[in-house]
Design brief:
Elements lengths: L2 E5 L10 H9 L3 E3 L19 H14 L5 E6 L2 H11 L4 E7 L8 E2 H4 L2 H10 L5 E2 L3 H7 L2 H4 L5 E2 L1 H4 L1 E2 L10 E6 L7 H9 L3 E5 L5 H4 L1 H15 L1
Parallel strand pairs: 1-2, 1-3, 3-4, 4-9, 9-10
Antiparallel strand pairs: 5-8, 6-7
Helix pairs in contact: 1-11, 2-3
Amino acid sequence: MSVFVFVHGGWGGGWEWRDIADRLREAGHDAYRPTLTGLSERRHLLSPAVNLETHVEDVANLLWFEDLNEVVLCGHSYGGMVVTRVADRAPERLAHIVYIDAFVPRSGESLLDLLPPPFADLIRGRCGDGVPMPIPRDRLEATVGAWYADRVVDHPFTTFADAVELTGAGAAIPRTYIRCTESDAPIDASAERARAAGWRFRELATHHDPQVDDPDALVALLLETAACIA
């Protein structure tokens, strides 16, 4: 049995991983899907004080208080920033890291550093430190439907601007990158970074949110990952 922990992307929440978690439990595994501070059902906690390290604490505390070990830690999109730092902080609890169409930072890089400059400038122009960052609803409706768009909330901008600081403690943890080939997210540079590093690399013919677009295919890849580390 593997223990999966899913870290959702920007503007989202643990709710969007419920179906994936249920399917993995049916297959004999365990799964957790925490919501990061200030988002989804925890949106009442949104404040200028919420930063990247807050979200790292959310996940690190889950690992500690639930006493989780041999974890397959999965980060989607922005969640790649979080899981990278968690791996550096608690490597002894992790067996594998899966990046699902996610950002792959090096030490000293923020999410804004990983975006194409015009995209990063657009975000900086809309927001300042601590200001919530809205997401264009029309893009979500076109790709994953109104029911999904109805549930996204503003995201704390500081988490995009904060740099990931790494000591190298988690560098030896095996990693898999799942690239969504129909995705319109600015992930290309991170995907190529993962490929160049020699990580296991898989592709899905889905949009940026495979947990909604094709959960069967995503679960199959996750089960494949679990089998390779058993």
